[in-house]
Amino acid sequence: MNFVILGKPGAGKGSICEEFKKNNLIHLSTGDIFRREIASQSELGLLANSYIRKGNLVPDEVTNDIIKKILVENPNKDYIFDGYPRTINQAQALKKNMDDLGIELDAVINLIVDDDLVIERLSSRRVCKECGAIYNTRNHNPKVEGVCDKCGGEVITRADDKIEAIKERLNVYNNQTAPLIDYYIKEGLIMNVDGSLDTIDLYQVVMKNLNERKSLSSSNL
Ligand code: AP5
Question: 217 vs 86, which has greater pLDDT?
Answer without folding.
Answer: 86
